[in-house]
Amino acid sequence: DVQMTQSPSSLSASVGDRVTITCQASQDINNYVNWYQQKPGKAPKVLIYGASNLETGVPSRFSGSGSGTDFTFTISSLQPEDIATYYCQQYDNLPYTFGQGTKLEIK
Amino acid sequence: EVQLVESGGGLVQPGGSLRLSCAASGFTFSAYAMHWVRQAPGKGLEYVTAISSNGGSTYYANANSVKGRFTISRDNSKNTLYLQMGSLRAEDTAVYYCARGYCSSISCRQDYWGQGTLVTVSS
Fold first, then answer.
1. Which of A52, A85, B43, B112 is 20–30 Å from A39 (CA)?
2. Are the C-beta atoms of B10 and B78 separated by less than 8 Å?
């Protein structure tokens, strides 16, 4: 199985800050990465697909980049409603494995 | 409106069985692959299993050793996805989510999720 190593596991930032989360795959997965947001008690929601494509309706402050084995997820200006846990996921090979998650908190 | 509604979770003893259901509406169920993803209390997301749109192909994750214990199936005439779980262990305790698999020319992703159903394996 492809392993997705996500960091950091938790992050505290202030409103308006730029926030970056990284994910490293155990093998080349092209750009086959999705990013999900999960708020407490809720199901995950896809934000970014194909490493850099914004899902319909998702604010433009969210973005993604990368290819091969290294991927980045960015929130350009953190908002209070962005408090959640974020997960990367690869879909190059089944099983579509997830990273360990990054819990984002407001400082 | 796309809706996925899971049911069938609950408390079960170790070694027991349980069948989860996921009722789909608001889209052509038979046109989409479907997935089960679980989340143990306080833990991250764990991919469990998937089934193709016509039910002809299934996939089970190896890492969590559900293969041989869990069976995914679907009834396209009833717009319902199932997960038959057997020989349950404490480590299977989790919220189980069903999710629709959407694939385009550039991506495959789980674009709609149910609210989840909690399975607790305990004596």
1. A52
2. no
